[in-house]
Amino acid sequence: MARVTGETVVDRLHYLHALVQQADETSLALVASSELGPMIKALLAVLDDHTPDERGRGLRPEKWTRLRVVRRPAVA
Questions:
Q1: Which residues contact 49 (CB under 8 A, 6 or more apart)?
Q2: φ, ψ (nearest 5 deg) of residue 31
């Protein structure tokens, strides 16, 4: 789920970046009014998740995920 969400966020950011590069001032104002609020809320949530706890850990334990390490054979 986190990977899908991350890909969705990246896709949305690429879309917004392209829009900002090509849009006129009126369109930019509309995009800003509709996108900035949710974007700020999401960034604040990310920052909150990464704020060190009382033990100095960067992520809250309930947010930790186990990474799957894929070992690839060495290329000779």
A1: 59, 60, 63
A2: -65, -45
